[in-house]
From TrEMBL, chain A:
This is 2-hydroxyacyl-CoA dehydratase. Belongs to the FldB/FldC dehydratase alpha/beta subunit family. It comes from the Bacteria. Transmembrane segments: none annotated.
Automatic annotation (TrEMBL), chain B:
Pfam families: HGD-D. The lineage of its organism: Bacteria, Bacteria division WOR-3. Signal peptide: none annotated. Belongs to the FldB/FldC dehydratase alpha/beta subunit family. This is 2-hydroxyacyl-CoA dehydratase. It comes from the Bacteria.
């Protein structure tokens, strides 16, 4: 199928369980396992990451036991790489790389950090999945001790992770973006700043379409402060060409992701869970952009092969859903697919990381413009429009909005967006809040999802 | 016995409502604004009548939940509810919002579904370090506001108009500051509930009328009503709406609130503006740099200001009240406790009075604790 699968043929596409992956892993030749290393050019034993989910379960990711996974080698590679990120960050520190925490802007600042050699950006924001992955409230409890308790976005886990000093190395620099963004995370950043005493604030302006040029100028000045701090940290003199190279690599990631979104959401070639991880990879490429690009190519080749051989991983005739706001509990995606539904459109609050950077523009202008594409810094109507375009193109039959109790933007925009979608596409909308970390989806949520999918089935029957 | 009778405040409000109706009938424009960061001077300079929209109550919050979820802050819920019900809100010719917290910044889009009047949103950078680009952008935002208002009133906000407005509001703030400084002195008899009511009047009545009222109060110097051993409390936290005096009244039954950092209280009057050569830029600098709301980043100056008040006014304990789901204030509570090392009572509320007696018990117990420490 593809060069990477040396002496190994993916089985017929399917979603398989944790235990099934363990068995399947036995068939992967050692030579193939040896082939994949993070921080490419590196072939040290410590940099291998192709392991079955069992390994990460032992390290604490207990939720893996309950998820379903795509059974391709490329997907295993994806899971191994992502689950390995904590270790990768500590290893990066050991081999002399600078660890840069970028917070709150969900995409643009990482492009600047990637321009500097040996700087590894990461988003502590993404640690919001950790309590669910580990089925543990340790990080949430730590955040509560520092002042952010219940009824707040699960992104508060990032504060707990900073306090624990064991989920990622203490960063060499922290950039905290705030402005027209959610209050919960801005509050997390504020307490992180007080906890670490080492934080550079970056403004995230409110998107006012008619004011674009002025806002770009503001952002450019903000970015120049970021660059100055990185220069001082690394001793490397910044050049425009460094940033152009970073933009070019970032666009490679975003193009590959856009293509995968099409293949998955139009043709059911990859499951929703893997797709969510792929979309979020556009933020900081899980701390290793070069290897991430290779993984995306591998996934693309897998999906293309499935397309050519007409082997979708999901039932193409399954109920077609649009999904707004990423589910903090990944088990929700597994569950809806288990009920013979599939995702055909998503709006996961990271539009700024998915849109291509305009390479014809001066580099900082291009990043500023992508920043202004953000999902959360504009009007709810604009966010609804983003979702609508995908949902309409792929004939979504229903919309699921997974919110968070106390999440500031959820409280204000969920109903409005739901109403817009309902009115425009005449499809039902289900809105629920994701329950705190647990090994199962709570009964109420499950019942509501079941009833919603039943409703969609009835509507489909009536139409036909 | 306080310095102003509640009946007088009510009468003044009712009279003002009637005046606003008359002013509108004569073609004048009434502009509502939310938030301490709206430069009221620009509204005044544009020839409009500024009215701060700081009313909130439980019933209007329930009405607001038709548009937003139960986990939105009750002040935003109530504001939405009041847009279609409060008599003063019905008189508005335009509304000015500021994107301070996330909820406030999303409110205009929802308000637009409720009212037909023009709505304007000022973009205030949330980052508080006064970098040139941020001030430049905020100045530009204020020019946009001036242009927006010109479209409503037909009056250009020029330098002369602005300087006049700045002077008038500086005088008003100075008078309110003078009054506020009597607060720590029990002999004067100014209750914090009254002080908040006067601030609310200052954002509703013409500045001269409020000024005269304050002059009268200062000259009256009512008799003492508290002993020197009364516990001295600082009040901090979310916005306290005009009709929301429960917590203040419960505290003042047994203690004295000697200072506050509430946006509808002393933070409204804390500093003066120096117009200089470019009054619009001066306004931008003033509003950008004023003692920050907890939502600004970083908000260290707010903490420094509180520390200063604690020392200057001999604060013995803090009552930290937050509206439910008011993240910017709620998250900072522990920091304040750690930094000040003072006894602190945290209260969450939502305008409902169902827990009034529980609230009383908690506040009484807290004040008892302060008394015990005093001995």
């Amino acid at each position: 199928m593809i060069d990477l699968n040396i002496n190994y043929q993916d089985p017929k596409p399917a979603r398989i369980s944790f235990e099934e992956w363990d068995d399947l892993f036995q068939r992967i030749p050692d030579a193939l396992i040896e082939k994949f290393h993070y921080f490419p050019q590196n072939t040290e034993a410590w940099s291998k990451y192709l392991f079955p989910p069992q390994i990460f379960y032992i390290y604490g990711a207990r939720h893996l036991r309950r998820l379903k996974f795509d059974n391709s080698l490329a997907a295993l590679r994806l899971w191994g790489f992502i689950n390995n990120e904590s270790e990768r960050l500590f290893r990066a520190r050991q081999i002399g790389k600078k660890i840069i925490a970028v917070m709150g802007d969900l995409g643009p600042l990482a492009v600047l950090v990637h321009a500097f050699p040996d700087c590894v950006p990461f988003y502590p924001d993404c640690w919001w999945w950790t309590p669910f992955a580990m089925e543990s409230t340790v990080l949430l409890d730590a955040a509560a001790q520092l002042g952010i308790g219940e009824a707040t976005c699960y992104s508060r886990a990032a504060l707990g992770a900073f306090a624990k000093h064991s989920y990622f190395p203490d960063p060499d620099l922290i950039f905290a973006a705030t402005g027209a963004s959610c209050d919960d995370y801005s509050g997390v950043e504020s307490l992180v700043a007080k906890l670490t005493g080492n934080c550079i604030w970056v403004e995230t302006p409110l998107r006012l379409p008619e004011e674009r040029d002025a806002l770009v100028n503001l952002l450019i000045e903000e970015y120049q402060r970021v660059i100055k701090a990185l220069q001082e940290l690394t001793g490397v003199q910044f050049t425009e060409s460094m940033l152009h190279a970073s933009i070019s690599r970032t666009n490679q990631v975003r193009r590959l992701t856009a293509n995968l979104r099409q293949l998955a959401y139009q043709q059911a070639l990859l499951p929703a869970l893997e797709m969510m991880l792929i979309e979020f990879g556009c933020l900081h490429c899980y701390s290793d952009i070069n290897e991430w690009i290779e993984i995306l190519k591998h996934l693309t080749a897998t999906a293309e092969y499935r397309r050519q051989t007409n082997q979708p991983v999901l039932n193409p005739a399954a109920l077609r859903l649009a999904w707004l706001t990423p589910p903090a509990d990944p088990l929700l995606l597994t569950y809806v697919e288990d009920q013979d539904a599939r995702l055909v459109a998503t709006e996961y609050v990271i539009n700024q990381a998915l849109t291509l950077l305009d390479e014809s523009q001066p580099a900082l202008t291009a990043i500023a413009l992508s920043h202004l594409n953000g999902s959360l810094n504009g009007a709810a109507h604009a966010r609804a429009a983003l979702l609508l375009s995908g949902a309409e193109a792929n004939s979504a039959e229903g919309l699921i909005i997974s919110g968070i109790l106390g999440g500031s933007h959820c409280a204000m925009e969920s109903r409005l967006i739901g109403d817009i979608v309902k009115a425009s596409l005449k499809i039902p909308v289900l809105e629920f809040d994701v329950a705190p970390p647990h090994k199962e989806i709570d009964r109420q949520t499950r019942t509501r999802i079941d009833a919603f999918l039943e409703l969609l089935r009835i509507r489909r029957c009536r139409k036909s | 016995m306080g310095v102003i009778a509640p009946e007088e405040i009510l009468t003044l409000r009712q009279q003002r409502r009637a005046e606003l109706q008359e002013l509108k009938a004569r073609g004048e424009k009434v502009i509502g604004y939310l938030c301490n960061y709206v430069p009221v001077e620009i509204i005044f300079a544009a020839g409009a009548v500024p009215v701060r929209l700081a009313q909130a109550d439980y019933h209007s919050a329930v009405a607001g939940k038709e548009l937003i979820r139960v986990d939105a802050c009750p002040f935003c819920q109530s504001t939405l509810g009041k847009l279609n019900s409060d008599p003063i809100y019905q008189l508005l010719d335009g509304i000015v919002f500021v994107n301070t917290c996330d909820l406030m910044r999303r409110l205009p889009e929802l308000a637009a579904t409720r009212v037909k009047v023009p709505i304007f949103q000022i973009y205030l950078p949330r980052t508080a370090e006064p970098l040139p680009a941020r001030i430049t952008e905020f100045t530009r935002q204020l020019q946009r506001l001036a242009d927006f208002l010109k479209n409503i009133t037909g009056i250009e906000v020029d330098r002369a108009n602005l300087i006049r407005a700045i002077t008038i509001y500086n005088q008003l703030r100075a008078k309110l500051r003078t009054l506020e400084q009597f607060r720590p002195h029990p002999g004067f008899g100014l209750k914090t509930a009254e002080f908040f009511d006067l601030i609310a009047l200052a954002t509703l009545l013409p500045p001269a009328a409020t000024g005269n009222l304050i002059d009268r109060i200062i000259n009256q110097a009512p008799p003492p009503n508290r002993d020197e051993h009364t516990p001295r409390v600082l009040l901090a936290g979310s916005i306290i709406a005009e009709s929301d005096r429960d917590i203040i009244n419960l505290i003042e039954e047994q203690a004295v609130i000697v200072a506050d950092v509430v946006c509808t209280g002393a933070r409204f009057i804390a500093e003066d503006i120096h117009p200089g050569a470019d009054p619009l830029n001066a306004l931008a600098c003033y509003y950008f740099n004023r003692i920050p709301c907890a939502c600004r980043r970083p908000n260290d100056r707010l903490f420094q200001h509180i520390q200063q008040l604690i020392i200057e006014r001999g604060v013995q304990g803090i009552v930290y009240q937050t509206l439910l789901y008011c993240d910017p204030w709620r998250f900072e509570a522990r920091q304040l406790r750690v930094q000040t090392q003072l006894p602190m009572l945290e209260i969450d509320h939502d305008y409902s009075r169902q827990n009034y007696e529980q609230l009383r018990t908690r506040i009484e117990a807290f004040i008892e604790l302060l008394r015990a420490k005093n001995k």
